[in-house]
């Protein structure tokens, strides 16, 4: 029997609009009431500002753990942006996080099925969003990054739906383990060979393969600070 592991407390969508530094972004997502359709390219009515780095089948929906906001509010008391929806998530998740969710987990939410495809790699837009110059780097370092889902079966979901775990083929690979490999700049050949055995999205496959081939970590300056 599928195990209930979490709840979707809110569902959020947005269309891209002007952002900082002449960019557009769909990060300012707002809650929706009632059922909404999840398709292989994301939620109906949702959009991204830069499809080179956001959206697509491997990043169809973004999830963020609700209880992480307690951490951020303690770190930045009085900052009004550290609240539900602040990280641009589509699904506000109660009951699980990156230390419990594993790569490749298959979920049932409403009538739709999903697969955990990768963790988020935060970018400089979070710095602008929260008004904290290095928040993207802080998010990466403490592994409270959020994660993405790909859609295995289209269907309708809504706030209040349970997240039911259908399969966990890589129980030894919680997202926090992979995110820590990234953040620690780990280039050890054995570690790289192990992670490359996983069904990684192309961007992560390329990143870890390059670390294995060159023994060097990628440059984060542009991603984290623009």
From TrEMBL:
<feature type="domain" description="MOSC">
    <location>
        <begin position="30"/>
        <end position="166"/>
    </location>
</feature>
<dbReference type="GO" id="GO:0003824">
    <property type="term" value="F:catalytic activity"/>
</dbReference>
<dbReference type="InterPro" id="IPR052353">
    <property type="entry name" value="Benzoxazolinone_Detox_Enz"/>
</dbReference>
<dbReference type="InterPro" id="IPR005302">
    <property type="entry name" value="MoCF_Sase_C"/>
</dbReference>
<dbReference type="Pfam" id="PF03475">
    <property type="entry name" value="YiiM_3-alpha"/>
</dbReference>
<dbReference type="Pfam" id="PF03473">
    <property type="entry name" value="MOSC"/>
</dbReference>
<dbReference type="InterPro" id="IPR005163">
    <property type="entry name" value="Tri_helical_YiiM-like"/>
</dbReference>
<dbReference type="GO" id="GO:0030170">
    <property type="term" value="F:pyridoxal phosphate binding"/>
</dbReference>
<dbReference type="GO" id="GO:0030151">
    <property type="term" value="F:molybdenum ion binding"/>
</dbReference>
<protein>
    <recommendedName>
        <fullName>MOSC domain-containing protein</fullName>
    </recommendedName>
</protein>
<dbReference type="InterPro" id="IPR011037">
    <property type="entry name" value="Pyrv_Knase-like_insert_dom_sf"/>
</dbReference>
